[in-house]
Amino acid sequence: MADGLLSVIPKAAAAGGPGWLSDLRALAITHLEEQGFPGKKNERWRFTSVRDVVDTAFEPDPTTSAAFVDEALGDDGTWRVVLAGGRPLLGDAAPPDGVSVRSLADVLATDPDLLEGHLGAAVATEQFAALNGALFTDGVVVHVAKNADVATPVHLVHVATPGDAPRAVYPRVVLIAEPGSRATVVESFLTAPGGSARHLTNTVAEVSVGANARVEHVRITDGAERSLQLAYLGARLDRDAFYGSRVVALGGALTRLELFVRFEGPGAEVELDGVYHVDDGDHVDHQLRVDHVAGRCTSHVRYRGLLDGRGHAVFNAMGIVHRDAAGSAAHQENRNLLLSDDATIDTKPHLEIDCDDVKASHGSTIGALDAGQLFYLRSRAIPEREARDILTFAFVREILDRIGHASLVARTSEAILARLPHGEALREGLSS
Amino acid sequence: MLKIENLHVRVDGKAILKGLDLELEQGQVHAIMGPNGSGKSTLSYVLAGRDGYEVTEGSITYDGVDLLALEPEQRAAKGVFLAFQYPVEIPGVSNVYFLKAAVNAVRRERGEKELDAIEFMRFAREKAKVVQLDPALMKRAVNSGFSGGEKKRNEIFQMAALEPRLAILDETDSGLDIDALRIVSEGVNALRSPERAMLVITHYQRLLDYIVPDRVHVLVDGKIVHSGDKTLASELEERGYAELGG
Ligand SMILES: Nc1ncnc2c1ncn2[C@@H]1O[C@H](COP(=O)(O)OP(=O)(O)OP(=O)(O)O)[C@@H](O)[C@H]1O
Ligand SMILES: [Mg+2]
User: Fold this and answer.
1) Which of A66, A110, A364, B13 is the right S-S partner for A347, CB 3.0 to 4.6 Å?
2) H or E stretch including B228?
3) Lowest mean pLDDT among A175-184, B59-68, B130-139
4) Residue A336 in 3-state DSSP?
């Protein structure tokens, strides 16, 4: 272990910053030292092994540019910031009106008070959130002004550039939406062409949605064979706030997202939507937790998975309705389409309810393509392989459509079609 | 055009069709009537090529080829069309997209140029008139949340678009109100042509007052027990199936 991931911890303790930040780091380090990294006995890690990751000595990713991004993403109508080597490449272009986008290192140096109560607030005991807490040096702060209505999405593009030896980045994102504001933030995780060694992206994003604010948060991970993604995303909502999380996770050697939401004021609502696809060599794990602390809040969890080849997906959602959270509604649904006999899914949505006045539902399904639908399409002359892809795509389409922003719906749709055996044939037709 | 000889079919190990013979000439319309569970839909599925229907004896020849050797999509591409008794809902797939894929698959088979999005919309709007299909239904997901009558109209709309040579209409009249029945029947009649044969499955003479058949067959317990001209339908309605043997 001393040679692996933890070997870098002592250095972290020396990092500077305001007093509350030092306390936070110290807490993270203590937590890591006491708990170590999770093994199979940890319920939330039963189906995902990180032994490999933990035993690897990652070097910092020294990359400072990512020229391929503009070509890869084209003009998608978003305002983009690329993070290379975990640091934002902020140019001179001003962000959309009503929002400021700055480097975290910069804010910590010049305006640390803005972050107090936001940075570190959502991260409790998850080990990889603690790892990021111990090691982050930079990242992005997105601050949406009170009552601002920001139409153009702010797009953070995290680029992993693998080298010849294992590399890692630990960027942290802080998103503060002041009361009454509206904004869309997109995070894309891309892997640059580069060396053959593995690359770890260990992110924490902390989202604070102020009273009556509305945040759409899209998260798209294009997994790669060499890419390890261990992410924590914590969102806290004040009264009457709305948070829409739209997650698209397309494969990757290890792609894990811990998404924790906490209702801190009454009358708020979250939609946690997700689509994942796994094929040979992919492992995608989603761990969700929604804490209904305040009453009259509504949570909808809707995840759909496509499971192909020898892919492995894990889905675990926990909805907790606390004693005083009367009038809560908590719904969880996870549906999986099994496209191959060799794919695996471990799914477990569940609820813990300590309150009487609650509307709740949860369920998961794992099924194959519907034979009746398949026959119907074929009886209309559509070849079987095309019919399969049409139905496979249809299974996730409804969730993709809720991403809302047309260029992002198109990008994620195309990325999924590209992963289907005969998706090419469908592409042209989708525009009609 | 279609010749069914001594057809025996099992479903889940149970014998459903037990020696069915039927011959249909180009340009003809034949009706099949018969009690619930006698095997009418089974016959229609076997013709369209659905999995799970085991042909244990007999043969089906369509335009001189062994129909049973073809995949469902090949049969459809060669002009076999089944209007389903229970059309299938497909959430997430728009009716327009679905039908465009279908029409172009058939056009490919016929060696015709595929229609692009604009050409197809023009084409589809024309075809929708045949059954007065509400244009809003074209944008919706296939049959998803359609009323019973809307689903049946959508079937005949598809038939109009795919221009089949052999159409099997399985209880297309059930679920239609009186006006819809007239509209859909007129649509079907408009599609009658010397090149096209139809097999119309129904329980009601009313449909056959609109779509006047050349022959009427009575299917009881997996076999055709009686055949006659169009007057057989009204006879059946008066006297029931029992007297005709079975
Ligand atoms: N999968 C199956 N397993 C066992 N029996 C089946 C199966 N599918 C159909 N059957 C049986 O086959 C028989 C014929 O069914 P079919 O649907 O062909 O009848 P039908 O003549 O179309 O009846 P209806 O007038 O009610 O539409 C019925 O007894 C039905 O229960
Ligand atoms: Mg039937």
Assistant:
1) A364
2) strand B223-228
3) B130-139
4) strand
Under an 8 A CB cutoff, do B76 and A431 touch? no
Structure token digits, residue A383: 């070849």
**Min distance A360 CA to chain B CA atoms (Å):** 25
The alpha carbon torsion through A42, A249, A79, A70 (nearest 10 deg) reads 120
B12, B41, B50, B86: best to mutate for the A interface, most A CBs within 10 A: B50
Distance between CA atoms of residues A59 and A218, nearest Å = 29
Q: Give the contacts of B109 (CB within 8 A, at least 6 positions apart).
A: A381, B77, B78
| Residue A191 buriedness (CB in 10 A; 0-12 / 13-18 / 19+) | buried
The ipTM of this complex is: 0.97
pLDDT at A432: 38
* Domain definitions of chain A by residue range: 5-265, 370-432
SS3 content of chain A, % helix, strand, coil (to 5): 25, 40, 35
Instruction: Kindly state the DSSP code that residue B222 receives in the 8-state scheme.
Output: T
State the pTM of this model: 0.92
What is the average pLDDT score of chain A?
93
pLDDT in tens, A346-369: 999 899 999 889 999 999 999 999
The answer to whether the CB of A30 falls within 8 A of the CB of A127 is no
Is the CATH code 2.40.100.10 the one for domain B2-245? no
Q: Which amino acid is residue A8, in one-letter code?
A: V
Residue B63 near residue B1 (C-beta atoms within 8 A): yes
The pairing of strands A199-209 and B14-24 is unpaired
Q: Which residues of A touch B75 (CB under 8 A)?
A: 379
A contact residues 360-389, partner B, Cβ 8 Å cutoff:
371-373, 375-384, 386-387
Q: Specify the DSSP element, H or E, that contains B210.
A: helix B205-210
Every domain of chain B and the residues it spans: 2-245
SS3 at position B27: coil
What kind and span of H or E run contains B153?
helix B148-162
